């Protein structure tokens, strides 16, 4: 039996009607006779997974246990998507949500038919349709004039992505074949033009709706061919033979990445910096898998060639220009690092969707080359807007520094520029700080290579290679994404866990800046030796 209940407003969300289903009494048959109860082969999400990689689709359907569990960052993004979806529904008052489990999709299909037939229902959320073994659940199906409907797919993104076309296209294909006349099929996403003014969101400005009626017909032939391929692949006893490549990470990191990309030896050709798939294939055609076996006349760029030389000799490579680069440093020095989150929904007045919220900084300070190192830090620890306290405390600490050392200047400079827009009274002080930024990343990238870099110049890879006693491996928070998740959690958890998270965040950000202190010391020692190769 289908029942409808009203959910009272919770927080900022409006009342919404939800369709649920009574569970049949044990021993009774299906609720509906005219609805196929055989599970569909392909859902909307699985179809889109097949667009990325047919092997991913096969494993999702037949061997889902092989998938890696989502990390905390992935879970946070999923929750963020649900929040965006709930807000989108508020633009369609009176809409009815269909809730069902995978085991009761037949009921959801029947409920959809009943709601479609009920002209008093202006919109349906999670309308469920099945055709030809493909099942889709439409985020928003809005009733229009002349017995037509508007299909809307809601995404917590700031723009239209190529794979979104297939997402909307397969829904349009199934819904149309189920007999509904669609006036439009659209993507509803967040607008980067929207500026939050505080209070309730202006939903009409927060979201942008893109009508895809012109793009989707051009996609129909490719979509039909893809659907046939997916159905064929799923009928096979073994997954398809698909070589790993860029599609393992784009448009999303595949949950079966480890199945197709086992850990490579440290001297594997894929460990060269910025090596592309075509170059790897060319080396493979030559029978070359180890960097040590790459012919001297094989075309590599300068960075790859010196990395190749470092791996072959097992020694650190450094340029003769390193000392000259380091001589540009002026004291007092400070080493600076920021931690941020960039939520889909703007948190504070003046912000746009996906703007960065700066919540933590760390600074290590040194007056002269022989002076002791001092440490300063800031971490926002409540729900208040952290931007101005962040900026005020930072400016107080870094004033007087002749050089501000960072790792990947574009990030810190970008955040400072955003703060200058929000707080123009600090514009001149921020501009002076930006002028003193000194990026350690290109210094290392252009002047040093160690075999343990394994093709990467990230701080997490460079630090243990050049400063073996320091590493991020045993830290509770070990990267920026984890820091963002930990901070969000710290604001809402119990006191004991809150204290631990705060300690972990301070340790992580502090390690980033102290890592730069130690790396600079190592580089200075190396710069005093003539350039070339040397023992690590």
Can you characterise this structure?
The longest helix has 33 residues, at 495-527. Residues 4-16, 20-39 and 529-533 have low confidence and may be disordered. This protein has three domains: 2-234, Lambda Exonuclease, Chain A (Alpha-Beta Complex), CATH 3.90.320; 264-299, no CATH class; 323-534, Ribonuclease H-like superfamily/Ribonuclease H (Nucleotidyltransferase, domain 5), CATH 3.30.420. Strands 1, 2, 3, 4, 5, 6, 7, 8 and 9 form a nine-stranded mixed β-sheet that branches. A five-stranded mixed β-sheet has the order 13-12-11-14-15, with helices on both faces. The protein contains 18 helices and 17 strands. The radius of gyration is 28 Å and the shape is globular. Helices cover 40% and strands 18% of the residues. With 536 residues, the protein is an alpha/beta fold. It has helices at 44-52, 54-62, 72-89, 105-117, 162-177, 203-206, 215-234, 257-260, 277-285, 302-313, 322-326, 387-398, 409-422, 427-435, 440-447, 459-466, 480-490, 495-527; strands spanning 2-7, 16-21, 42-43, 96-98, 123-131, 134-143, 148-155, 181-190, 207-211, 316-318, 333-341, 357-366, 374-379, 403-406, 437-439, 448-449, 532-534. α5 crosses α7 (215-234).
């Amino acid at each position: 039996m289908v029942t409808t209940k009203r959910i009272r407003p919770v927080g900022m969300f409006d009342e919404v009607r939800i369709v649920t289903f009574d569970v049949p009494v044990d021993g009774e048959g299906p609720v509906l006779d005219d609805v196929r109860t055989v599970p569909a082969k392909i859902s909307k999400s699985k179809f889109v997974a097949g667009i990325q990689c047919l092997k991913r689709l096969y494993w999702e359907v037949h061997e889902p246990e092989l998938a890696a569990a989502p990390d905390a960052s992935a879970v946070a993004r999923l929750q963020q998507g649900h929040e965006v979806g709930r807000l989108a529904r508020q633009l369609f008052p009176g809409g009815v949500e269909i809730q069902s489990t995978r085991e009761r999709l037949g009921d959801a299909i029947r409920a959809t038919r009943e709601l479609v037939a009920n002209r008093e229902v202006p919109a349906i959320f999670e309308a469920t349709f099945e055709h030809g073994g493909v099942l889709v659940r439409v985020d928003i199906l809005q009733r229009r004039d002349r017995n037509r409907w508007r299909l809307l797919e809601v995404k917590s993104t700031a723009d239209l992505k190529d794979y979104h076309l297939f997402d909307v296209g397969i829904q349009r294909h199934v819904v149309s074949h189920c007999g509904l006349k669609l006036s439009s099929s659209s993507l509803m996403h967040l607008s980067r033009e929207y500026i939050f003014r505080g209070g309730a969101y202006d939903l009409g400005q927060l979201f942008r709706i893109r009508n895809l009626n012109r793009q989707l017909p051009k996609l129909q032939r490719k979509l039909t061919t893809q659907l046939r391929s997916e159905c064929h692949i799923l009928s096979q006893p073994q997954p398809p033979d698909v070589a790993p490549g860029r599609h393992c990470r784009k448009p999303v990191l595949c949950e079966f990445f480890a199945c197709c990309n086992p850990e490579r030896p440290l001297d594997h050709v894929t460990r060269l910096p910025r090596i592309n798939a075509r170059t790897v294939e060319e080396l493979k055609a030559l029978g070359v898998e180890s960097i040590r076996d790459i012919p001297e006349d094989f075309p590599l760029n300068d960075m790859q060639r010196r990395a190749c030389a470092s791996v072959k000799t097992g020694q650190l490579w450094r340029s003769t220009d390193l000392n000259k680069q380091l001589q540009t440093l002026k004291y007092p020095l400070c080493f600076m690092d920021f931690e941020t989150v960039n939520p889909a929904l703007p948190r504070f007045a003046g912000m746009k969707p996906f703007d960065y919220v700066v919540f933590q900084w760390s600074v290590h300070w040194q007056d002269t080359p022989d002076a002791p190192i001092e440490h300063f830090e800031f971490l926002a620890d409540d729900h208040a807007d952290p931007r101005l306290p962040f900026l005020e405390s930072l400016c107080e600490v870094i004033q007087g520094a002749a050089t501000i050392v960072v790792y990947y200047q574009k990030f810190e400079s970008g955040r400072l520029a955003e703060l200058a827009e929000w707080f123009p009274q600090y514009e001149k002080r921020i501009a002076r700080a930006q002028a003193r930024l000194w990026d350690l990343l290109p210094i290392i990238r252009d002047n040093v290579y160690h075999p343990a870099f394994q093709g990467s110049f990230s701080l997490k890879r460079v630090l243990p290679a050049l400063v073996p006693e320091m590493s991020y491996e045993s830290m509770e928070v070990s990267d920026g994404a984890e820091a963002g998740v930990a901070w969000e959690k710290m604001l809402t958890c119990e006191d004991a866990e809150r204290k631990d998270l705060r300690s972990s965040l301070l340790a992580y950000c502090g390690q980033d800046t102290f890592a730069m202190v130690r790396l600079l010391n190592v580089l200075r020692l190396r710069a005093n030796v003539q350039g070339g190769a040397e023992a690590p």
